[in-house]
Amino acid sequence: MDLKTPLYDAHLEAGGKMVSFAGYTLPVQYKDSGVIKEHLAVRNQVGLFDVSHMGEVVYEGKDALANLHYLLTNDFSNLEVGRVRYTLMCNENGGVIDDLLVYKCSDEKYLLVVNAANRAKDVAWMKEHLFGEVAFSDQSDQFVQIALQGAFAKEMIEKRTKEEEIPKKYYSFTENADVGGVTCLLSRTGYTGEFGYELYCKPEDGIKLWNLLLETGQEYDIIPCGLGARDTLRLEAGMPLYGHEMTEEITPLETDLNFAVKMKKEDFIGKKALIDKGEPKITRIGLQLTDRGIVREGADVYFNDKKIGQTTSGTMCPFISKACAMALVEKNSVEIGSPIEVEVRGKKIKAEVVTLPFVKK
Amino acid sequence: MTKAMELKFSKSHEWVLFDGDKVKIGLSDYAQDQLGDIVFIDLPDEGDDVTKGESFADIESVKAVSEAYSPITATVTAVNEELLDSPELINSAPLESWLIEVEGVDEIEDLLSAEEYKKFCEEAEEA
């Protein structure tokens, strides 16, 4: 039986088409809009997402930082309180267990946001590797998470929040902001490639915050958006998704996430394997179809009739109106502008290697 | 004697319009609603044969690909080329957006009347 988020009734009322995702029942789209309209709302004005399925875990104590340093690939020693950092969590072979955000609440308290589909696996892995003086807790059920994404998010939050409580920089947050009477962690982050915020509040305040944001956004034509648009938006923005561009078999270096791996760090799980493997033999590219059609994940990619790799995600990107995909291919086999082909149901379709992100704004 | 225009539905959610010897096939309103925004379709060519119970077109929505199944064994005499450039018409006007026209009908599966089909969809919703 799938879990319901505290916003379940609001989704039904709004005509959400509910689907099962990562153990939750969530709207894939809403009846009056659909994926394309929802996608365009975020690119052109503003949209609201229920992302309460995401997992939240907390590390607290004297050795919290040391734990994260060993467990995760990025460096947190220079992370300031009130800032967020993207990181990977690798296994001993250098494969990616999950990608996550680390929020520094204080010198001894960190909040980690993990993928819903990986939560159980992550929690088990994290518990297994705890050391020193640290308290670990899975607080996923203690948060509603709402993503407010799109240019008008700024004005909306300004209307409901004191100036000094609004995080200004990208990847910064205010732990106890008062947004229209609801206490929440207000974070300048998102997964759409647009300006926006992610808000974390108590489950019992979820509906109030959701409705408050919808009301505040009315004058900007805000609409609720589902998982469908969340996926097309992140793809159009060239952002990787766990299970597609990242898996336990792919290292971060092979999927072009080097920026989140600090090889100079003394030690972390997976470092040795990453060194032993040497220069990655594959890399992640963006491609755009030049022929008509759509390419999804798992399609073979060819250059000069030689298979060079496979797509990992693909769809029609609504804002740029182009069929796009990301792919993992042999390193140095192609460059930007290379004419390639992708095989869709036995037919080879023409495409071109393009820079990521697909959307340029 | 053939009957006047008659609209029927398949259990795989295609509509079938019999007009003399010619038969047009499209996607039902229920099907387009389930699929969501349709962004690409791939149709057979004129002269191709379609076979009862087999796929004759790929329908790509933003989220996923699905197929249209022919309720009839026959030969394609026309394809709706307008849809190749504007597949979203299937969403906005599913009953006007025929996909293919066929002739020389050989086999036909048991089709539902509009009323039976409505009931069939309601039951599918509840399941």
Automatic annotation (TrEMBL), chain A:
Q: Which residues form the GCVT N-terminal domain?
A: 7-265
Q: Which reaction does it catalyse?
A: N(6)-[(R)-S(8)-aminomethyldihydrolipoyl]-L-lysyl-[protein] + (6S)-5,6,7,8-tetrahydrofolate = N(6)-[(R)-dihydrolipoyl]-L-lysyl-[protein] + (6R)-5,10-methylene-5,6,7,8-tetrahydrofolate + NH4(+)
Q: Which residues bind substrate?
A: E198
Can you list the GO cellular component terms from the UniProt entry? cytosol; glycine cleavage complex
Q: In its UniProt entry, what is this protein called?
A: Aminomethyltransferase
* Protein family per UniProt: Belongs to the GcvT family.
Q: Name one GO biological process term.
A: glycine decarboxylation via glycine cleavage system
Name the EC number(s).
2.1.2.10
Originating organism: Enterococcus ureilyticus
Give the gene that encodes this protein: gcvT
Automatic annotation (TrEMBL), chain B:
Q: Name what cofactor the protein needs.
A: (R)-lipoate
Biological process annotations from GO: glycine decarboxylation via glycine cleavage system; protein lipoylation
Record InterPro entries = Biotin_lipoyl, GCV_H, GCV_H/Fam206, GCV_H_sub, Single_hybrid_motif
Q: Does the keyword Transcription apply?
A: no
Q: How is the cofactor bound?
A: Binds 1 lipoyl cofactor covalently.
Q: Does the keyword DNA-binding apply?
A: no
What are the UniProt keywords, alphabetically? Answer: Lipoyl
Q: Name one GO cellular component term.
A: cytosol
Give residue ranges for domain Lipoyl-binding: 22-103
PROSITE patterns the UniProt entry points to: BIOTINYL_LIPOYL (PS50968)
Which residues carry the post-translational modification N6-lipoyllysine, per the record?
K63
Q: What does this protein do?
A: The glycine cleavage system catalyzes the degradation of glycine. The H protein shuttles the methylamine group of glycine from the P protein to the T protein.
UniProt family annotation: Belongs to the GcvH family.
Assembly and partners are described as: The glycine cleavage system is composed of four proteins: P, T, L and H.
**Database matches in HAMAP family:** GcvH
Protein name according to UniProt:
Glycine cleavage system H protein
Q: Which organism is it from?
A: Enterococcus ureilyticus
Underlying gene: gcvH
